[in-house]
């Protein structure tokens, strides 16, 4: 009785081991290798040569790995909103003036529990007032009073 494992059995063992490893890890990388090994096991059982088995393993694993980001994003993330972080998250938020914002040096505002150097786009702003972040330039915020609006010129500018 010959107990030497055949190629399809070895590929099946590899698929099972990779599948078990996938259960222990948090990424889907090993899952695609397990599916590739399973495909190669089927190919070996159908009489595919060793080079064909290796090619099939590589092709299936790489194709699934490349398609997985697109698949997961389209299936699981279709309704997810874009998460704003850093500077992008600060734009449009309100801040409290800690040190009055006067010309020309500006002052300090508190936003999300942090102190930031700020300059006002709408003139001097006293301490304790709320302002809205309009722009971030390096480590300096450009803010405006929420009720402040840009002046609208009266008349038709083409006539002047």
Automatic annotation (TrEMBL):
Subcellular location: Membrane
Broad class of where this protein is predominantly found: membrane
UniProt keyword list: Membrane, Transmembrane, Transmembrane helix
Topology class, membrane: Multi-pass membrane protein
InterPro entries: Membrane_assoc_protease, NA-bd_OB-fold, NfeD-like_C
Membrane-crossing residue ranges in chain numbering: 54-72
GO cellular component: plasma membrane
Pfam entry (one): NfeD
Entry protein name: NfeD family protein
Domain NfeD-like C-terminal: residue ranges: 88-145
Keyword Transmembrane helix attached: yes
Domain of life: Bacteria
């Amino acid at each position: 009785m010959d107990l030497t494992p055949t190629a399809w059995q070895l590929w099946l063992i590899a698929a099972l081991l990779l599948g078990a490893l996938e259960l222990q890890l948090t990424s889907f990388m090993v899952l695609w290798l397990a599916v590739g090994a399973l495909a190669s096991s089927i190919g070996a059982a159908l009489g595919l040569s060793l080079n064909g088995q290796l090619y099939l393993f590589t092709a299936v694993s790489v194709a699934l790995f490349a398609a997985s980001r697109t698949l997961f994003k389209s299936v699981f993330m279709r309704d997810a909103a874009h998460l704003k972080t850093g500077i992008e998250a600060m734009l449009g938020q309100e801040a409290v003036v800690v040190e009055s914002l006067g010309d020309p040096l500006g002052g300090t505002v508190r936003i999300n529990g942090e102190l930031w150097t700020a300059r006002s786009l709408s003139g001097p702003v006293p301490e304790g007032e709320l302002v809205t972040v309009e722009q971030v330039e390096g480590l300096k915020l450009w803010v405006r009073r929420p009720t402040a609006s840009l002046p609208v010129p009266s008349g038709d500018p083409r006539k002047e």
